[in-house]
Amino acid sequence: MLGLNNKIQADENIKNPPSSDSYPIVSGLFSKDRGFGVNVLSLTVLDLINEGQIKCDIDLEDSYEVGKKLTAEDMEVMKKITLRIANKGELKTSETLAINLLKNMNKNKKFNLKAMAKQSNITSVANKFEKDLNEFVRALKNENGFDGENYKDILENGKLTVRGKELKKEWRNFQGYLKSKDLTEKYPPESLSENSVQILYAACFDIEKDALIIRENDSALTDFIDKDGYKLLYIIFNNALLNVSEKRKGDGIFYGVNDKYTIPGGA
After folding, report:
1. Which residue has the higher pLDDT, 173 or 5?
2. DSSP code per residue over 210-233
3. For the stretch 47-75, what's the b/e string if a residue is b when 16 or more beta carbons lie within 10 angstroms of its beta carbon?
4. Would you say 46 and 200 are in contact if contact means Cβ atoms under 8 Å apart?
5. How far apart are CA 2 and CA 225, in angstroms?
6. Is the pLDDT of residue 255 over 50?
7. Mean pLDDT score of the chain
8. Beta strand pairing status for 54-58 and 81-85?
9. Of 237 and 259, the one with more pLDDT
10. Element spanning 159, H or E
C-alpha cells in the first residue's frame, strides 16, 4: 500500500505482478491512455524479440533517446537497428498475425527501422497495415477471452469496475517498484528471465527506460530498449496510421492516432 510521502511500504511480494494477464492486455486495461492499438502491437513485437522469435541486431554502442521531434539523427539511428524474423515453433494466433504484419509492411523477413519508416509513408502499405492491425487486435482479444466472461468483473461498458480500479491501484504500486532504485536493489530480479519480464511490464506503462536504468542491460530486448528502438517502433506504427487514405467504417475498432511524431516524406 501507499504510505506517507507516497513511499511504497513493501515486502518481497511487491516484485510480483498483480495478475497473470498478457503484456498487451495489461497495457490495454491499466496503462494511462488505455486502449488496444499500436501500443499492444508494439508490446507483442517486443515480447517476440525477448522470446527470440524476432532477432535484433544493433550497430550502436551508446544509449540513445529520441527527442521531442524526429531528427535526421533519429533516422540514422533507425538505420542501425535491424530486425530479422526467425519465428520457429508454435505461436499464438496474435503473434503469427503480428509477424505477418511486419512481413507485409517490409516485404522481407529482414529490415532496418529506417526502411520500415519509409514504408509507413506509402499509402497502400499504410492501408494494409491498418487492416492487419484490426485483424491482430481481434485475435488478441479473442485468445484472451477479452470480450467474454474473463474480464466481466474488471470492465463493464468500457469502464473499470470497482474490482478493476482496485487492480489498477495494485498495478500502480507495481510500477512504483519497477521505477524505484531502493526497492529494486532490495528485491532485485533473480534471473535474466525475470529481469526481462520486469522490463516488459515496464514497457506496458511507458516507463521501460526508467526501469532499465536500475536493471541489467543484458539481452537483445534490453539493448533494443536502451537504444530507444521500442519507442521508434511505436512511432513507425503510429505514422502508418497517419498515412491511411481511407478510414474503414464498421470495424468496431478506433485508434487514437498520435501526430506528435511524423516521419519525413509522409503524405
Report:
1. 173
2. HHHHTS---SHHHHHHHTTHHHHH
3. bbbbeebbebebeeeeebebeeebeeebb
4. yes
5. 29
6. no
7. 89
8. antiparallel
9. 237
10. strand 159-160
* Burial classification of residue 141, based on how many CB atoms lie within 10 Å of its CB (0-12 exposed, 13-18 middle, 19 or more buried): buried
Place of cell 497495415: 129
Helices 229-242 and 38-50 sit at what angle, rounded to 10 degrees?
A: 140
Provide the β-strand partners of residue 112.
Answer: 82
| Per-residue model confidence (pLDDT) at position 2 | 40
| CA–CA distance, 130 with 41 (Å, rounded to integer) | 12
> Is the distance from CB of 95 to CB of 44 less than 8 angstroms?
yes
For residue 258, pLDDT over 80 is answered with no
Give this prediction's pTM.
Answer: 0.89
| Dihedral of alpha carbons 32, 36, 42, 46, sign | positive
Report the alpha-carbon angle 122-128-130, nearest 5. 100
Q: How confident is the model at residue 1, as a pLDDT? A: 36
Phi, psi (degrees; rounded to nearest 5) at 17: -55, 140
For 56, the 3-state DSSP assignment is: strand
**What is the model's pLDDT at position 157?**
87
What DSSP line would sit under 130-150, residue for residue? Answer: HHHHHHHHHHHHHHTTTTTTT
- Give percent of the chain with pLDDT exceeding 70: 89
Asked whether the beta carbons of 263 and 236 are under 8 A apart, the reply is yes
Q: Is 8 helix (H, G, I), strand (E, B) or coil?
A: strand
The bridge status of strand 159-160 relative to strand 81-85 is unpaired
